[in-house]
Amino acid sequence: MLSSTKSVALATLTSAFLTTGTPAEDVAPTSEVADHHAVTDALIRFTNGMDTDDGALIASAFSENGIADFTPAAAKVGMQFPVLEGRDGIVGALVPFASAFTTSHSVTNARVDVQGDSATLYALVEAQHLPVVDNTRHFMMMNQYQIDLVREGDQWVMSRMTIDNLWANGDLAVMTGG
User: What domains appear along the chain, each with residue ranges and CATH number?
Assistant: First the structure.
């Protein structure tokens, strides 16, 4: 049984939620919500591009001089992967790499901080990799993404993406071509 104080607080919170769809104290200005969504969309464009081997979609997620740094995650699972620099360099390295796999990336726990025309994004991304030639084997990773973004026109793009690994499961040879 709830105390009367908790009941009143719950009723107030429920009323605010039913009226607005979110608790009244969490309602943000429209432009802030739009920025948070657009910042997260840059990561979604990247992961969806990886899952669909779509170089144009991957490119749309990065600034012209963007950096993709997989080295912390790679080192934790016993691999070496170079830091990729420049939009064209990132796409040129990742599309052939990704095309060897059937992948699925799931993005969660996104935290966004927007400061004018720059932003940071922290997210967890689970990535499942199955070789196209043998989908009975897999390698799954749960990675932390730390991303710096800049506003370019009406969209956000990643200027630096650093990926670190939390855990991995499966056959590492899947990732190394073995």
Answer: 29-176 (3.10.450.50)
